[in-house]
Amino acid sequence: MNKLKLRSLLEQFFLEDIGEQDVTTDFIFPNDAKGEVTLIAKEDGIFCGEDVVQVGFQLLNDKTDVRVCVKDGDSIQKGQTLAIISGEVSTLLTGERVVLNVIQRMSGIATLTREAVETLNCAFTRICDTRKTTPGLRMLEKYAVRCGGGYNHRFGLYDGIMIKDNHIAFAGSIQKAVEIARKQVGHMVKIEVETESKEQVIEAVEAGSDVIMFDNRTPEEIRDFIQYVPSHIITEASGGITMGDLAAYRDTGVHYISLGFLTHSYQALDISAKVSIHS
Question: The whole model's pTM is what?
Answer without folding.
Answer: 0.96
